[in-house]
Amino acid sequence: MPSLSGAYVPSTMQWVRDQVETYERTGGKEAATLMETGIPVIIVAMRGAASGSVRKIALMRVERDGEYALVASYGGAPKHPAWYHNLVAHPSEVTIQDGPEPFFVTVRLAEGTEYDDWWRRSVAVFPQYETYKAKTSRRIPVFIATPVERT
Known about the structure:
The protein is of the alpha+beta class. The protein has helices at 14-25, 82-89, 112-125, 128-135; strands spanning 41-47, 54-60, 63-64, 67-71, 94-97, 102-109, 142-147. The chain has four helices and seven strands. The protein has a seven-stranded antiparallel sheet, sandwiched between helices. The longest helix has 14 residues, at 112-125. The N and C termini lie close together (12 Å). The relative contact order is 0.20.
């Protein structure tokens, strides 16, 4: 099973720890939605920007043609989520689990019309993103995650 090497440091938020653990343990058969919304999620593992440790989060599942949008909304907070900095620092040390097995991806920030297209797709999946956008003066980053072969 593909995975990042190194020590895993679980989230400081209990519900995130629980969701990641249950999703991974059941191969995505349980804990595969955002709480009671029924909206599918994926598990994203990444290398910590400062610590170098493995970090894992659940994000909304926004997928098209095998690529995924990773929306750094942070609920419309004024700052980017910590994981934003992890992806910027280590864009090729990322896995996504969307079902039974994780796979490696490389990430990049979407810009221009690509950003607009992925933003629209993301809002179609999770309309709350528009509310988050209205709450903050920052442009909410959207990463595009593209699967890669690793040996």
